[in-house]
Design a protein that fits this description.
The chain is an alpha/beta fold. The protein contains ten helices and seven strands. It has a seven-stranded mixed sheet with strand order 3-2-1-4-5-7-6, sandwiched between helices. Helix 3 packs parallel to helix 6 and helix 8 runs parallel beside helix 9.
Length: 283
């Protein structure tokens, strides 16, 4: 009778002999099919559950995986100089904000887009937005592309905790930002218009710029060029569209700034996640 180690060695030897033979072609073909079907089956189960239960058609709500939260905390800490425990504390602070959670739920249930919006306050990579604001304490934030205003409310909630600051939120849709009510509007000015033109007309120094417009790289370039004259003393630019183009890293290279990228990993969701780019001066 063979010892366990001998049996494992024999099995490994057999696999190697098969892999080195013509039979390995067929075995490899079947094995690759099994790997693909196992992955796609999991994704299809997640997609089917979302299809049946969700109302969303864009800007999906979800939480991050535990490991991805850790990666995000390190990413924000490296950019801000804050400690990782401090950043994780900001994440927990946002996620335990019952007032914001209830506000999102209640406003969504009576909003005009309630039939295409979920009322759960799951913030995804926006917890990184919140931590950036809490750590950097910006006086003036400009956000372009606000949709229903969940991200805008997250920024406003961070400013509330800081006790200072204001958000200029820009969108082309007249009814954008319908979540920004019930006190959150005191920290936000919603402006309807072309983002690049509105930014160009701004005269208040911008400490944090959040680009969240999912149109074209050309649009993003126009916004950044319009932004340059009104940058604050220690500006930070965040692109929530960095997974789809290289506009921000090219700008950072041109200016001699730092650039860093974070890839989002949703928990229990079929969507593969987006990505955020962050740029800030070296000095």
């Amino acid at each position: 009778m063979k010892a366990p180690g001998e049996m494992e060695s024999g099995s490994l030897s057999l696999r190697r002999r098969v892999a080195a033979s013509k039979a390995g072609l067929l075995v490899g073909y079947l094995l690759r099919g099994w790997i693909v079907m196992r992955h796609m089956g999991h994704q299809m189960r997640l997609a089917g559950r979302w299809w049946a239960r969700s109302r969303e058609t864009t800007n999906f709500n979800f939480d991050l995986t535990a490991l991805n939260r850790t990666h995000l905390a390190w990413w924000v800490a490296e950019a801000t100089g804050a400690s990782v425990p401090e950043i994780l504390g900001y994440f927990a602070e946002l996620e335990s904000d019952d007032a914001l959670r209830m506000h999102v739920r209640d406003r969504t249930k009576v909003g005009r887009y309630q039939y295409v919006s979920d009322d759960n306050a799951a913030y995804g990579r926006r917890i990184g937005w919140y931590a950036l604001v809490r750590a950097l304490r910006p006086q003036h934030i400009v956000e372009t592309g606000i949709d229903k205003g969940l991200g805008t409310c997250v920024l406003a909630a961070a400013l509330m905790r800081n006790g200072r600051g204001h958000v200029t939120a820009i969108d082309t849709a007249p009814d954008a930002g319908w979540l920004v009510t019930d006190g959150y509007e005191e920290w936000v000015t919603v402006v309807v218009g072309d983002a690049a033109r509105v930014v160009a007309d701004n005269t208040v120094p911008v400490d944090l710029f959040v680009h969240d417009v999912h149109f074209t790289p050309e649009q993003e370039c126009e916004e950044y060029e319009a932004l340059m004259p009104s940058l604050g003393a220690s500006p930070v630019i965040l692109s929530d569209n960095a997974h789809s183009n290289d506009v921000l890293p090219r700008l950072a290279e041109r200016l001699g700034w730092h650039f860093s990228y974070f890839k989002e990993q949703p928990a229990h969701h079929w969507y593969p996640g987006g990505g955020m780019g962050l740029a800030w001066p070296r000095s």
